[in-house]
Amino acid sequence: MHQGIMKAWLESSHLSGANSTYVEEMYEAYQEDPSAVSDDWRAVFDNLPPVDGNDTHSPEPAHSKIRDYFRSLAQDSRTKTTGRVSDPELDAKQVKVLQLINAYRFRGHQNANLDPLALWKRDAVAELDPAFHGLTAEDMDREFNTGSFAYGNGTMKLKELVKALKATYTESIGAEYMHITDTEEKRWIQQRLEPTLGRAAYSKDVKSRLLEGLNAAEGMEKYLGAKFPGAKRFSLEGGDSLVPMLREIIYRSGEAGTKEIVIGMAHRGRLNVLVNVLGKRPAELFDEFAGKHHEDGLGSGDVKYHQGFSSDFETPGGNVHLALAFNPSHLEIVNPVVMGSVRARLDRRGSDDGLQVMPITIHGDSAIAGQGIVQETFNMSQTRAFKVGGSIRIVVNNQVGFTTSNHHDTRSTEYCTDIAKMVQAPIFHVNGDDPEAVAFISQLAVDYRNTFKRDVVVELVCYRRHGHNEADEPSATQPVMYGKIKKHPTTRKIYADRLVAEQSLSAEDITGMVNDYRDALDKGDCVVKEWRPMTLHTVDWTPYLNREWDEQYESAIGLDHLKELAAKVSYVPETHQLQSRVAKIYNDRDAMAKGEKLLDWGFAEMLAYATILETKKRVRITGQDSGRGTFFHRHAVLHNQKDGTTYLPLRHVADKEGPFDINDSVLSEASVLAFEYGYATAEPAGLTIWEAQFGDFANCAQVVIDQFLSSGEQKWGRLCGLTMLLPHGYEGQGPEHSSARLERFLQLCANHNMQVCIPSTPAQVYHMLRRQVVRPMRRPLVVMSPKSLLRHPMAVSSLEELAEGGFRNVIGEVDTLDASKVDRVVFCSGKVYYDLLDRRRKENIDNVAIVRIEQLYPFPHEELNAVLADYQHVTDFVWCQEEPQNQGAWYCSQHHFWSSIPQGAQLSYAGREASAAPACGYPELHARQQESLIASALKL
Ligand code: AMP
């Protein structure tokens, strides 16, 4: 080993002497970045023997040992060789040259020419000056080894090297990638940037295509500005390069084999992207500007700059389906929605490496730095449940935060993109006024994503030509910037002049282009020549359209077959050693499967999944504890106590069954729920579930509930069958873990937008989950799911109850009471039912009937009427709830109760008093309150 190192050391071009200092410095450079030294030296360092058992690549103390080691080698060589003696000064300079290269790679972006307005004030980076490294004017004509710098042939005059470094790292592209620890990725980026000095040699056709994109971007805004003066359009102007950029990304992806791209973006520039990239007909947009309402069966609709769109786009590699996601006003929340939609499409296609479907998210500079959901989405990007093979993240940095803010008010980071470093994403900043650099770096980004399956960021540094909206006056708050902008030529003009100057196009060609585009807008037809009508290569949603919750459906599964499934779901191979508590649960399940024991909640739930999976449909469950279940009730994933391997009984219910994906999620609610919403809006066939660890955690995802789940169908016509399991129940666990905030969901209910259910038995949860898949309606299902009921001795069901019937929206009295003696009927939902029943039985009360309302919305009037048929003589009805009076169902649902009781009858309330907190924190107070509400409901 030592001899090999010695040989390499002696034979290396600059190293023929005994210069241990040089070697040490070289080694230091290698430690900082292995790619900073030449291949032969890296080979030497890579092969260094471990010192005292340490990895030689780790820093001190191993380093000092290595130094000694090289010193000894140097001495050795002096005694053993008579040949070449190096120039120590030149060798030292050689190291400095390598450090200079490194400095450009690390910090060139800080002095790159990124801002089209030249307003960015950035200090000169000292390390980029050769003098900083002790390199002098005389050195400029000296030839040096250029190490791993991928331009040229390994040696270069210093002045040429500096020129090449400047061209690569400090012109229109600022490449930030040296924070990546993976050497292969860094080398890959260097190999793409350096050989061509950070630019592409585009053909005339491509140049003309880029100009067409700019022409369309600018032409469209001018046209809208003239036709609808003062109307809000959130113009793209200043960031015009976004249009050619997106088009190049689509081309590149299509060539690589991508079949679908899902795009998420906020309002700025959206109309432009809709018309000039996705191919929305301008005439349709103009109608929207004119305020026309299309009678297309959609609900209340949304403003034009929130609209989504779908189309196909022809590329040399085949058609790519494009879907621009609908987006509410919250700027960044669409990102996890897009990722979820992409994951659903990848799963459907079986494209595990992410190649076939790609996400593009477009961010504003203040939003990407300001909104926590961005961090959450980055954090998900490489996890099992949420990875999508990387995303392209474009930041349109127009240098004005939301309406009027400067960057020092909107972030504390150097770049708005710094958050992306948490996943070591490469970040490419690019001057928006250089469309060729934009295209070059965008293509590189696509290739990087497809090669490494990781996120990559391109920051388009540009400006905003007008105010926040077109009626706004920006110079009131940004006088200097807008003074500059007024005089600044458009990107199209800059590029057109450049193409004329280099004789790629003539001035007449360019004028022709402008006129043609305007004529096309006049005609109102699609202006994207690559646009193709959508083919049905995605999903057919027609079976799910115009369906209602009370539609009849067939879901019965024969008892014998159910028993077979039960046996499979409770089977665990003998070699798989279970933890003792889990083993007890599976022993019980075995007895349940054999009909020796009544079913508990966890087993009924598992059986529901089994019945769905055997029909080849997918079941996907995510949540903070979903494999095991927060309350230890599910155990869908069994961990072998011997070796940690896992066994999932639900993956063995049929020969060819649907995929069962169950994954513990990242510790987030907003991004996870948004992701699952995106998944369910792109995958109608299976069952998609998000489970909150405790129901109140859904608070953190309120924006997703308000802006997507409850209103997405009405605003955008997008159906979503997502199920949310939200543990809810008053068990003395204090204010935070008792309530899933039922009242908030009920308050959002209208137009049959979602279902809110509180199942009270294992058979009910089984039927409810099956119904969500078997019935063709696709609307969110919000479940107040239990905690103590998971093990409540009364909350059990027989296999027969599962085999027969379906979900019961209302469950009438279960004891044999004489209806004519009943003088009070108590309505309730959820766990309180068992408290009422238990107490009534204990007190031998026979004049109070208890009716469970298992679906609070849409309200099951007919079923409740049927149950109340026997109680038409009763005048005393009570709604009993555990929640405080201002919470739970009392205020939101009592109009439904009133409309169901006989005329003249009274409805009263039995529950906790109104409270600012969801529940009290003292167990003793909780018990007293609970006793009081039960007593009040039962007239005790
Ligand atoms: P996409 O693949 O998202 O571009 O969708 C293609 C087409 O499928 C859309 O234009 C809609 O007609 C339909 N579609 C997609 N998602 C949904 C959904 N969640 N609800 C209803 N229709 C949908």
From TrEMBL:
EC number in record: 1.2.4.2
Family matches, as Pfam families: 2-oxogl_dehyd_N, E1_dh, OxoGdeHyase_C, Transket_pyr
Alphabetical UniProt keywords: Oxidoreductase, Thiamine pyrophosphate
Top-tier EC class: oxidoreductase
Record has Manganese as a keyword: no
UniProt domain Transketolase-like pyrimidine-binding: residue ranges: 599-792
Listed InterPro entries: 2-oxogl_dehyd_N, 2oxoglutarate_DH_E1, DH_E1, KGD_C_sf, ODO-1/KGD_C, THDP-binding, Transketolase-like_Pyr-bd
GO molecular function terms noted in the UniProt entry: oxoglutarate dehydrogenase (succinyl-transferring) activity
Cofactor(s) it depends on: thiamine diphosphate
Keyword S-adenosyl-L-methionine found: no
Membrane-crossing segments per the record: none
Function text: E1 component of the 2-oxoglutarate dehydrogenase (OGDH) complex which catalyzes the decarboxylation of 2-oxoglutarate, the first step in the conversion of 2-oxoglutarate to succinyl-CoA and CO(2).
PANTHER family attached to this UniProt entry: 2-OXOADIPATE DEHYDROGENASE COMPLEX COMPONENT E1, 2-OXOGLUTARATE DEHYDROGENASE
Family: Belongs to the alpha-ketoglutarate dehydrogenase family.
Protein name: oxoglutarate dehydrogenase (succinyl-transferring)
Species whose genome carries this gene: Shewanella electrica
